[in-house]
Hints:
The protein is 65% helix and 0% strand. The protein is an all-alpha fold. It has two domains: 1-36, no CATH class; 38-99. The longest helix has 24 residues, at 70-93. The protein is elongated. The mean pLDDT is 89.
Amino acid sequence: MASFRAFLNSPVGPKTTHFWGPVSNWGFILAGLADTQKPPELISGQMTGVLCVYSALFMRFAWVIRPRNHFLMVTHASNECVQLYQLSRWAKGQWYLQQKEDKPTTSQ
Length: 108
């Protein structure tokens, strides 16, 4: 009971925005995971890119602030992974990540 009370009253506990901010950000991750079942033509490359930058910036923020918020950092690291996967699906769907075929040279 003492450890639960300590968690409740900690600087990153459920009585603070340091806890509820990351909880609400899991919506981005769950939406990204749900979108992996959709065709890549429906992915917005711009929005996915913005979410990648957003998560990268806030991972650093979670590391720098005091008290250090590991929950926020893990949340944004998870979102970064999901969004980078979505970005790769979008790029493949747009033919950005196609391998170039070597054309045979003909000698005359």
